Amino acid sequence: MVRHRWCQGVRVTLDPVLTQARSREVRSVVDTVVEWAAERAEVRGVLVVGSWARGTARMDSDVDVVVLTGNVHYSAAGVWTGLLGGEMVRSAEWGPLREIRVRRPSGLVVEIGVTPVSWADTDPVDAGTHRVIDDGHRVVHDPAGVLARLSAACEPERRYPGLRP
């Protein structure tokens, strides 16, 4: 639902409409990360999560990308500022996941979550991982099928055998 407010007799949209230029930029960012990952055997998977994966993104939405790898050097901010352009605005640790937030010159914020492949373990699926997957995900690079197995393990019929959504 788009919210509005009146300012000096003019109706102002509070939820900016997603532009084609922003959508193209996000596709370019994801393509860049996938091409980078495809050149590195130690990157076992890449997925987009959150609003862009669900198809509910707005102009102020960040792009959330999870990178599965055992290479801790890929959690360095310089890897992502160099690849995507822009500046690091935040880094944080969320359990095994290292978050690097990069603001591109356009203002688009890309949140890269670098995490070990064990983040995608399916026996059992970690509760935090499950929440991320359930909130919306799109697998964009999965050379070994690790993310396909995770997606399947998080499907409702797998969690609740005998019940259909």
UniProtKB/TrEMBL annotation:
Residues annotated as domain Polymerase nucleotidyl transferase: 38-74
Coiled-coil regions, chain positions: none
GO molecular function, one term: nucleotidyltransferase activity
Classification via Pfam families: NTP_transf_2
UniProt entry keywords in alphabetical sequence: Transferase
Record-linked InterPro entries: NT_sf, Polymerase_NTP_transf_dom
Transmembrane stretches, start-end: none
The organism's place on the tree of life at top rank: Bacteria
Name used for this protein in its record: Nucleotidyltransferase-like protein
